[in-house]
């Protein structure tokens, strides 16, 4: 695990010394937008026009943030429009690598060995973390964005000339509700599991743990009244939660010590997880081998033996009870 300082790679873990043992996630630095007409998004200088075949995603199948972008690419039918390279699940001293084995594709654009070479290709003097997902522009040979929450908004609408324009995961009428749900789910759940797992003091861990399970309890309650987080249709808020839920029982319960309850212990959340998993195309984006091998194998400070637990038994394909919310015809 490491980062770039003025374009040079340094093998260095997260620094929690100045924050009372708390894990504080760094802001993503590449924040441009692909738009339909190529005009720069509000407040941005550079514009990127949506075109088929022009953009590429660098992802890890283990990473919940990258997973969001893969789900949007599949559901919006953009597989032939946006290409993908998958990094290897092991993230060690060189960060994410392009070792092409075990369902990792290698770097299908440049044949680089390490993801950090993609960052320095875009900016030879870049300083910061080298994260997935990356949305890459093959034409300008640069990074458009490395912020998953913004990449999924681009995939949701900018490529509708080629993708499935009938699906909108951020509909105008529900934006207020979706933003409200995201404002709970991101800090307490998506990032909450990392805040618990990467904490280096008992107090910081317990703070994250409390926030996490209180947010899960809130959502369990919400999902007793409605099928999805923002009401009766699937939105971005659901896919953002899904990628954390699907990693929860196999990884976060043990590896990140998020063990008050499993998702399997929540009737509504567990049925909801199966409901989303069974949406056509989604199961193909879930690679539990990469997920388990990455976390247990890469975080040496948390799991020095790198032993990957064999369980738990999971069956996301089992029947769920969420159709009980189906509207009367
Ligand atoms: N805010 C970013 C976070 C992405 C992120 O942290 N990805 C992790 C993998 S799950 C990563 O690449 N970490 C490498 C590092 O921090 O050095 C996003 O949502 O796109």
UniProtKB/TrEMBL annotation:
Chain positions of site Lowers pKa of active site Cys: 252, 295
Active-site residue list: 63 (nucleophile), 194 (proton donor/acceptor)
SUPFAM superfamilies associated with the record: GST C-terminal domain-like (SSF47616), Thioredoxin-like (SSF52833)
InterPro entries: Glutathione-S-Trfase_C-like, Glutathione-S-Trfase_C_sf, Glutathione_S-Trfase, Glutathione_S-Trfase_N, GST_Omega-like_C, GST_Omega/GSH, Thioredoxin-like_sf
GO molecular function, one term: glutathione transferase activity
Name of a matching Pfam family: GST_N_2
Domain annotation GST C-terminal: ranges: 160-305
GO cellular component term of the entry, any: cytoplasm
Gene3D superfamilies in alphabetical order: 1.20.1050.10, Glutaredoxin
Residues given in the record as glutathione binding sites: 96, 129-132, 147-148
Protein name (record): Glutathione-dependent reductase
Organism, as annotated: Mesorhizobium helmanticense
